[in-house]
Amino acid sequence: MKKATLLIALGLALLSACNSQQTAVVESETPMVKVVEANEEMVNQIAEYTGNIEPFVKNNISSSTAQRVEKIFVEVGTNVKKGQLLVQMENINYANARIQLENLKTDLARTEALYKAGGISQQQYEQLKTQVKVAEENISNLDRNTKLLSPINGVVTARNFDNGDLTMGQPILVVMQLQPVKIMIAVSEEFYPVVKAGTPVEITLDVYEGKKYSGKVSLVYPTIDPMTRTFQVQVSIANQSMEIRPGMFARAKVELGSKKRVVVPDKAVIKQQGTNDKYVFVLDGDVVKYVKVEVGRRVGAKYEILSGLEAGQRVVVAGATNLIDNSRVKVTEGGLDLSL
Length: 340
Known about the structure:
The chain is of the alpha+beta class and 340 residues long. The chain has three domains: 30-43 and 259-340, Beta Barrel (conserved putative lor/sdh protein from methanococcus maripaludis s2 fold), CATH 2.40.420.20; 47-56 and 178-258, Elongation Factor Tu (Ef-tu), domain 3 (Beta Barrel); 90-145, Helix Hairpins. The chain is 23% helix and 41% strand. The chain has helices at 2-29, 92-117, 122-146, and strands at 32-37, 39-52, 54-61, 69-72, 79-80, 85-89, 147-149, 154-159, 173-188, 200-205, 213-220, 230-237, 249-265, 270-271, 278-284, 287-299, 302-307, 314-318, 327-328, 330-331. Strand 10 and strand 11 (213-220) form a beta hairpin. Residues 17-27 have low confidence and may be disordered.
């Protein structure tokens, strides 16, 4: 009886020892991590947009009817002034209309004398006066269509015809205003109350490395695009040096005030290989969840989180090397040098 009791006690002792060893092994295999709490801070909203430089104004110089070009007075690259004669169109119709007008004026003068003498009725006299007025308006219209003037101060950027050509389809010339120039950017609707005419904008161009140009918001479009949730903003650049040309690739940096945002240490953010997606490990009890986040600006050693994470959630900042979604972890508060 004593021998049986001794064997039972020995067996229980061995079983207890095995369980303790298994528990120790499990605990030693559980990854240790450091976590910090995501919090909210006021973050300066500095947004960068890209686009192409455009002329501030673009005018197509053309005749309202198909006419033959008599003479073009400018070439591509010519600086022109507002009101400057650019193109003289063939004026056969103009010459005929001028002769007709002079004849009508002569008839009117003779008729006026007859009218005063009582030789014709007032109706006949008024009809001839109307014909003269219509002929003068016709001359004015023909004058505008035969003498094509520049509507702006600018530069000739295209010429599609030569002297003697019959104009059809395309404009004869293109004139662009290059002082100032502009860039159009699409801004998120959340900043609609912030963006105003006059808001300063910093412009850089890849072609002029290291140079910065001052711009300002010159027009805010009054509607929001329901598909993109953005609104159009026109930014003007003075371009006094005339270095900036239409078509150049530009970057526009705009300060849009400050907003309260969730921030986390940069060590918490993991970039998914092969994509531009960003993730963090979020502690949930004794396991971690692999959560996709939208990252905004980097502010010192922290990242602004635009979506995917709420203030108060705890994220892994060290020990994430071998973690996967739903990994069981052990949190350490000590100063262990855990690598990501």
